[in-house]
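User: Structure tokens for both sequences below?

Assistant:
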Amino acid sequence: MSKKLPRPDQLQENRAVDRRRATMNEVAIEAGVSQTTVSLVLNDVSSARFSAITRHRVLDAAERLNYQTTRRSGPQNSSNGTIAFVVDEMSTDPWTALAMDGICEAAWAQGISIWCAVTRGNIEAERSILQQAIASRAVGLIYGTINTRRVEPPVLSQPMPTVLLNCYVSDNSIPSVVPAEVVGGQIATKRLIAAGHRRIGYINGESGMDAARDRLRGYKQALTAADIAFDSTLIRNGNWEPSTGYEFTRELMSLPNPPTAIFCANDLMALGCYDALKELGLAIPGDVAVIGYDSREIAQYVHPPLTTVLLPHFQMGVEATECLIDLVNGSPTSSRIKVEGQLIDRNSV
């Protein structure tokens, strides 16, 4: 390989400094906005339209917390090489953009540039794109997916240091960075238990997806830890859309012994849950507490603002980049890194 990244001891020293700085999520909480808003404002993205008040809140929060970023001016030099980021698709959801922002945060701080491409799930396009990554003399590859899932190893004509982002291979032969979904399910459920609830409804996403399976597992584990018997009549399998949040909230509240709290496996279903509860004349959180998952932008603007668990794609991007840098430099790496999201506590519990 013709390009050499910074020595591992230099990287560790730089990371120690980074850990003492405020994170983008801390700025978002301080300003009362989402990570996406913070990213767009601090990077002065011209196509993003925010009010002067919102921009001021973000910039003021960043200044108060002494948040520092190298991303606004881009990498200062590209002598340390290029990382290829290949993802299966972009979507209207912010997750891929947040992950890429985290990749840029970590890479540009080391003077490493980013080469990005989207495969749209096309196998032949993926092969061609991976060949382009090799031809571009990228020092390493971050291969990502929009949904957390098991994947087949990327097919490379020549070996290249690779880290998987939001996906994994069954034998853990390639290092991967994924969200700690079981822990997230525990965090949400424990918050409701701490508020005094023992009959907690759970509206899940599509049962075949990793995120739905693991969040449900965390829900069950939190109940067991609190000595609360699991009741399958309180579980509904939705499809991540507001309509199923609405439909299944009405079903749950029609039970002879309805829940006093509902955990929705994403914020969109929580929106439907809100609509159903208000239609039934029930107050949130006075009659029924509600908690979501993802920390979407809209969660802070519903009434009351929604308590939710952050889906940590930005930090996952940072971790994937640091893992790849270690891999390129021959340092030991974990086979699978699980990144925990934090509780964003508002007024719905």
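Moving on to the next sequence.
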Amino acid sequence: MISEIITKLADNKDLRYREMHDIMNDIFDGKVSVQDTASFLKNLATKGESNDELLAMLDMMQEHAIHIEPKCNGRIIDVCGTGGDKMSTFNVSTTAAFVIAAGGGNVAKHGNRSTSGISGSADIFEYFGYDLNMEPNKIRDIIEKFNIGFMFAQKFHPAMKNVAEARKLLKTRTAFNLLGPLSNPARVKNQLVGVFSPSYLQRVITLLRSRGAENVMTVISSDGLDELSTTSKNYIYHLKNGEIRNFILEPSEIGLRKTNLSDIQISTRYEAIRSFVSVLKDTGKKSMIDITALNAAAGFVVGGIADEFDEALEIAFDTIHSGKSFDLFRNFIKYCGDISKLEEVENN
């Protein structure tokens, strides 16, 4: 079957939902060789994925995943990007996640180690002693206790080990770069998703809506960041009450000073760690605090904490400036990490 599928894709023909469903089931069950899996992914990317193909892949990822169901007051959201923008920025979405949780939101953060950048969300949590292989039920309890927890993609999507070698062989972006942020193990219905191309702004939000999403923003900045940025204007698609609208957000429209990309970039993993802590402590660069607050504001909007960006941005800044963000992170690490690692960063 796989050889027929590879040939069909090479002939630039779309797969039907059922065809993709069945072949992904075989791949995730380890029934397809690494070389055939690589050829399949390469031909699929070259052809361009149809919506039915992406939906089938997304459904199979969730079917093979481990899930949790945290019980929290209010909506549970995720904030993440597809990655791969190669901009070497600090971990904006991870930092924003703690601001959102400290400001009254609930975040079931889903992510991985960095593959193309300097530091991924998993790298941040792991540095501070958070056990990436923690049992799912404990992570559920942590989310309920602190309004935030981290789900390591490799732990919650064990079947992805059967595509890992093929992806390494290709060394290029595949459909899984897009689908990872859409396959949250807590099955969140509200989220902020940064995408790697403007062409995916509407597609991603349409895919999520077809799977029951309620309040979702897909975003990309005009200079290519897969998150909301203060360095340029932002293109946004917003799903709310079943309707999708799109608009452009200029940082200056909501009182933010436009900054240079270099102001939010880092060059080492330890610099990423220091930037993350300094923003939460409100001692970091203004540019880093501003972009964190902007993304946290979007999280407050999709999380139902605020209706408009200007109101949400005020909550974000208040949460950082008041010390709530850092207090939450410190208590979080004291409970499920290594507090000495945090103290070491503070002292340095």
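User: Anything stand out in the second?

Assistant: DSSP finds 16 helices and seven strands in the chain.
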